[in-house]
Amino acid sequence: MARNAHAYALSANDLLTGEQVFWSHQGRWCLSFEDALFSTEPQNLTPLGNAEEAANRVVGAALIPVDENRRPVELRDQRRLQGVSVAVRTTASEAASRPSAATLAQAA
Amino acid sequence: MYAYDQYDQAFVEQRAAEFREQIERRLSGALSEDEFKPLRLQNGLYLQLHAYMLRVAIPYGALNARQLRVLGDLADRYDKGYGHFTTRQNIQYNWTKLSDVADMIDALASVQMHAIQTSGNCIRNVTTDAYAGVAGDEWLDPRPSAELLRQWSSLHPEFAFLPRKFKIAVLGAAQDRAAMKFHDIGLWAKLDADGQPQYDIWVGGGQGRTPRVARLFQEAVPLADLLPTLDAMLRVYNLAGRRDNKYKARIKILIDEMGIEPYRLAVVEELARVDRDAFATAVGEYQRIAAQFETAQRPALQGQKVPEGSPEFRAWLQQNGLTHKVNGYAAVSVSLKTKGAIPGDASGAQMRAVADLAERYSAGEIRVSHRQNLVLPWVKLNDLETLYHALLEQDLAEANVGLVSDIIACPGLDYCALATARSIPVAQALSLRLRERERRQGPIEASLNISGCINACGHHHAANIGILGLNRSESETYQISLGGRADEGAKVGDILGPGFSQDQVPDVVETLLDTWQSLREDGEDFSQTYDRVGKQPFKEAVYV
Amino acid sequence: MSDLSVNETSSLLGWRLDASGALSQPPAPTLDLLLEPDAAEDLGLDNLLHLSAIGLVFKTPHDGRSFSLARRLRNAGFQGQLIGLGRLMPDQARHSVQSGLDALWLEDDLVQRHGIRAWQNALNVVVGSLYNQQRLSAEVAPRLAAPDIWRRRHNKAA
Ligand code: HEM
Ligand code: SF4
Asked: What is the spatial order of strands in the sheet that A58-66 belongs to?
């Protein structure tokens, strides 16, 4: 168990999209760390992660140890939650400006 | 260039269909992640921190305009508008969805491309000199050899589950522009007395946590023996390589532990059993491939002259141009390292723009270099200035190829699940600082490479100044090494001392450059000065 | 060296995937030897060449040594049957045949977990013809007569 860990959240990548997800109070995966469930008993979360992996909903389930302020204690988790450090030029939702499947086929 | 025939086309289409079916079985749960992982990796699909990443092969770094356009469109349609060109002639898309990958692979197949064996414990995409076929110092075009190896290794049934990844590079020139000696197998192609290809085979190079410069395995192997020899070399490795510890599983460790002589003997014994008849078609196939590359070569041109142009144009050509094998042409690099840029990243729009320029000014051809830049290999001398201005408009005319601001960097902790620190912000800060220094001082010829962990994807071991990002007590620390090089005099750098914070890195690098410049004797490059004076003066300057 | 005898193997409920792609439930194969990759070096190749059926063990789906053992045996002129056993995936059936195996012998739970369909399909949705194919099993070769791509390009018989 991580040093200075006060509690833990459960995280994974969504099987289909690969996005980082967190186990929430509602008992399902959510996209925001704010909504994550924090538990002082990691032994409750680990089997849950394993079961969710076995159910083929997520991949790479792992615990995120956090301090009293719910700040991740590990560098990797801190950076991962911050997201990439450079502005990403377009977002996935700006689909309008992107070429359609038809232009792709044409280019081919 | 090489163009697919019906067999090549059917091959990539069948592979695309197979991968689509594998993804479906994964989504249905029939394949567990443990089983799917080697299968997806063998088709270039990783899971990173924020999404899946798809690595697409650019075999021997060669692209035509149509292909580059599709790479740009894939970036816009399935990623967030950009892609990352890597040091091994691949492009990576960092934001892919598992549900989109099969469609991406189909789009690639439609332009004779694929993601076969861009990852996984198999024979990876075979790389070479980005200036193959056009470099003035070339003895033999390495691309036909690389294409032969691509075909031989693609979906090789026996070597798909090796102890670890296996990287091969081929060279055909005096100068090593492909880091050949940092590959599991490096082939240095030459011509024999009758003008036929033969190969010096180097083995056991690699980076990662145990960097090794390759050792000479055998000289002057004739073309007809090349594949049987590689076949025997890989079989011995597959059977004897360690599988108990993935950090000791590369062939370099087998050779460390076994010794090069015993390894050679084991290969000789294996080779005696190899069914030579199975390889009987290889030489004919090589000739068929080589003929395609030969017809694509262009005849010398008369009446071509480099335009006078502006001082900026002349500086750009001086820095980014390479003497061409064929009269009347120049090969020019398109730097993906503009001031403050992320090394190797290009937007979809930039890829399409370069594709257009290649069509207009470079016989429709583009290359990807191991320093993460693009190359336009066939520019007529008369067109150089017009091309320069067109590149300028796309922010792609930075005159820094081969300079210290031409930084190699891996994705690091911004994307990579294995990273211990970020490399991108460090590369950006250094780029700003060093480009400024170059503006003041003129060209600074040294190499600077950054990796976000000990796996060394950013080639930090092989740089004059190498930077390795580490995690020390949950904060990012950057360890510096000096004196490495990736060319024919390949050498692993020496660690300077304790690491630095991200903020300190630009000052430290400038101090190292100051020290080199003050100690440097006439005409010395960084390595020469370093080899002469050693680590001490640099240490003293940095750790005052 | 592991010498699990035929009787022990035959007590298992199992499936056979043939090089032709056919999946069936015949009695377990009769094997002269179960060859674990770790034991292969010590056994000596010459001691194996006279056997009529060897089981090649795959310990994990990541361990490809038995493909190389099959190739080494075929190269050395082994004429008998090579049967793959252990933790294989349907996706490795192609690799097996192309490395010189005759068939896979699969335990029932492995077949069920991937699904019978996946195993029946194992040799359909794959790249059936390589650029360069080395020697196949003597029994398989005539049935899978498609020569490799290089031979077809250069009009040479297999
Ligand atoms: C998700 C991204 C990546 C992952 C997970 C990854 C993984 C690895 C690992 C584990 C190694 C060490 C292998 C060993 O020592 O056995 C390695 C080496 C290497 N990778 Fe990557 N890599 C990634 C991205 C890249 C990128 C972006 C590049 C090019 C810029 C690259 C090029 C290389 C090179 C050149 C080496 C060193 C050569 C060698 O293998 O010895 N990789 N990679
Ligand atoms: S060096 Fe490390 S951080 Fe960088 S890409 Fe490779 S594995 Fe990731």
From this structure: A29-30, A20-23, A7-14, A58-66
Closest CA to B172 of B134, B139, B202: B139
- Read off the tokens for C139: 């029994």
Query: What percent of chain C clears pLDDT 70, i.e. is strictly above it?
Result: 88
**Quick one: CA dihedral B226, B229, B232, B235, positive or negative?**
negative
Q: Look at residue B149 and give its three-state secondary structure.
A: helix
Map out the domains of chain C with their CATH numbers: 9-127 (3.40.50)
Sheet with B494-495, side-by-side order of all strands? B408-409, B448-451, B465-472, B475-482, B494-495
Q: Does C26 touch chain B (CB under 8 A)?
A: no
Specify if A1 maps to a domain.
no
Residues B312 and B392: their CA atoms lie apart, in Å, by 11
What residues does each domain of chain B span?
6-109, 134-292, 311-393, 408-542
CA of B387 to the centre of ligand 1 (A): 34
Split into its structural domains, chain A has a count of 1
Residue ranges making up the domain that contains A72:
7-107
Side-chain half-sphere of C88: how many Cα atoms within 13 Å? 32
Q: Give the number of whichever ligand sits closest to the CA of residue B343.
A: 1
Spatial contact of B145 and B72, defined as CB atoms under 8 Å apart: no
CA distance B240 to chain C (A): 9
Q: Cα C15 from chain centroid?
A: 13
CA-to-CA distance for B221 and B225, rounded, in angstroms?
A: 6
Q: Which of A9, C131, C123, C99 is nearest to B149 (CA)?
A: C131
Sign of CA dihedral C122, C128, C133, C134: positive
A46 C-alpha vs ligand 1 centroid, how far in Å? Answer: 30
Using pLDDT thresholds of 50, 70 and 90, give the confidence band for residue C157: low
**Neighbours, chain B (3 or more CB pairs < 8 A):** A, C
Whether B51 sits inside 8 A of A18 (CB atoms) is yes
Residue B205 Cα distances to A41, B180, B253, angstroms: 46, 8, 10
3-state helix, strand, coil split of chain A in percent (to 5) is 30, 25, 45
pLDDT band at C32 (very low <50, low <70, confident <90, very high): very high
CATH code, B6-109: 3.30.70
Q: What is the DSSP string of chain C?
A: -B---HHHHHTS-EEEEETTS-EE--SPPP-SEEE-HHHHHHH-GGGTTT-SEEEEEE-STT--HHHHHHHHHHHTT--SEEEEEES--GGGHHHHHHTT--EEEEEHHHHHHH-HHHHHTTTTSS----SS-----TTHHHHS----HHHHHTT---
Residue C2 has pLDDT above 80, yes or no: no
Q: Which CATH number fits domain B134-292: 3.30.413.10, 3.40.50.1000, 2.40.37.10, 3.40.1400.10?
A: 3.30.413.10
ipTM of the complex: 0.94
- Give the CATH superfamily of B408-542: Sulfite Reductase Hemoprotein, domain 1 (3.30.413.10)
Q: What is the C-alpha separation between B458 and B467, in angstroms, rounded? A: 9
Tell me the three state secondary structure of residue B311: helix
- 3-class state of residue B84 by DSSP: strand
The pLDDT value recorded for residue C83 is 97
The predicted pLDDT at position B100 comes to 96
CATH entry, B311-393, from 3.40.50.1000, 3.30.70.3340, 3.30.1780.10, 3.30.565.10: 3.30.70.3340
Q: Is A89 among the domain residues? A: yes
Which residue is closest to B37 within chain C, CA to CA? C62
A2, part of any domain: no
